[in-house]
Amino acid sequence: MNDQSQPEEFADVNEAVEDEWESETTPYERIRHVIAHAYSPVPADAVADDALTTPKTARKHLNTLAEEGFVETSPGEHGGTLYRRSPESLVVEQAADILEHVTTDELVTRVTEMRERLNEYRTEYGVDSPEELAVERTNQTLAKSGSAGQEIDPETIRDWKTLRRNLAFANAALSIGTAEQFVGEDDHSTDESIPA
Amino acid sequence: MAGPTDQPEHHSLRGAIDRPALLTIRDIVEEMEPLATARLDDYLDPAVLEVTLDDGLGEADSARIDIRWTTRGDYVFHYTDTEGVNLRWGKHPHGGEYRCVDGLEHYHPPPDASSDPDKVQDSCITQSSEALVTRAVLKLWRVAYHTDAYEPLNAGSNPP
Q1: Domain total for chain A?
Q2: Structural domain of residue A169, as residue ranges?
Q3: ipTM of the assembly?
């Protein structure tokens, strides 16, 4: 991109970005992009809309992505198929990114620290999960008048959920990183070095 | 549902911050905007993608856009610059408190990213995927940068 270039004229920014995206990518790339962060099951039609292509094309590429393990399918209503990003493929992708950028030593330290923080949430709020904390919060709001304990704010619930999710990615990275040290090594030489 | 006085509930992003989405947004920003560098505030447990811009609007020498994106597709893009000007595009429930806003997408105008219910406006960005929302923000920023004005940031068009 050229810093000196004048931005092009456009009547509607939403249409302009759609046109650009469409001209710079293939339907397959857009479908992969849309489904990559679709964590709840969606029909092919919805993916097609977001990916600026036809339902037929969307279905074709989604089925290929499902065969590759990138996408998971489930039966929808009226015999249709629903698609979502495969959690397994997402975890592996995030773990690979983490292993590429973070050393094993640092990963060990951080995972320990994140586990401790997760435990602190449990101790501090006396519940096991952010979902339970959300229920507590609703009860607190309904009770209103009571001065029972500290006020639970929604940011705490979000931070807890975020930490739990990111720890899951980091844990996966650590497990894969550790496992990689012990597999795939050619141990023929060891075998051969054993005296007959 | 909580009552209208319980504003924190209405004003929070739904779902966890989505690290995978932040990485995607980072790649789009770095590919498209020559003035930008983007980094996660914490590589393993990110809350924010911090985008640094090597120049700002008006007198500002530099600027920053802090981006949050959740697993539910809620988001915040908060612009702040060295002149202390703030503004923000967001998408999250607000319990109807922003009187002039129809949907979830809204815009907190400069100079202070006001949350005054009468000042928060409809956002000109109505796309929902992170690829298109990010592209839209960058496009609006480019127009604002070239005209050296804040108005284009929520005008949604770049007339001749």
Answers
A1: 2
A2: 89-181
A3: 0.90
